[in-house]
Amino acid sequence: MALVDDGGVVDFRHEVIGRGHAERLVPLIAELVGGGRAASIAVGCGPGSFAGVRIGVAAARALALGWGIRASGFSTPALVAAGAAEEIVAAGGALVVMEGGHGQWFVQPFAADLAPRGDVQSAFPDDAIRADDILIIGNRADDFVARRGGGRALSRLPDARAFARLPAAALFGAPRPIYGRAPDAKPMAPA
């Protein structure tokens, strides 16, 4: 997470944890300068882990309500792309590839101006590697390039410090989870 103003990043925290998002998120916000209080909130809405995405969106919406400020959302692939903006401009575009769970990857192509060239998709690796982008960015970039046998991989995780490089069009109001694929749970069949 990052506290950002017009001059750039004021304060940030970045921790990679497997579990415990709900327990760690609000204390991490409180560690930021001024308790993390800001004029507005923007939250990564996924796709990502089901629980992690829901926890982040719920916390952002609750803080916005409590503080009486505006909340907006953005996609995780857009933030990953923003974190590699210079490389994407130089390459003329890139494909963001992130862990999707259940043996799948979340993939989304971006143009040189960081505008999405398509929607985020959940794909099995053998289907995902059909994309013809040369520059592959994300936490599955190395696996993607190795599996396809070509390209340039930049291993990256979402980093809130890249928020300032997100295009304005990447933000949307009323943050809501972006799941990236259909739910695992299925309704019970009628008896």
Query: What gap, in angstroms, lies between the N and C termini?
Result: 47 Å
The number of helical elements comes to 6
SSE order, one letter for each helix or strand:
EEHEHEHHEEEHEHEE
For the residues shown, what is the average pLDDT? 93
CATH architecture of the largest domain: 2-Layer Sandwich
Assign an overall shape.
Answer: globular
Give the low-pLDDT segments.
none
Give the oligomeric state.
single chain
The tally of domains stands at: 2
Biggest sheet, spatial arrangement of strands: 7-6-5-8-9
Strand content: 15-25%
- The portion of residues assigned to helices is 25-40%
Sheet having the most strands: 5 strands, mixed
Instruction: Give the name of the CATH superfamily of the largest domain.
Output: ATPase, nucleotide binding domain
Radius of gyration equals 17 Å
Task: Find the structural class using helix and strand composition.
Answer: alpha/beta
CATH topology of the largest domain: Nucleotidyltransferase, domain 5
The number of strands is 10
**CATH first level of the largest domain: which class?**
Alpha Beta
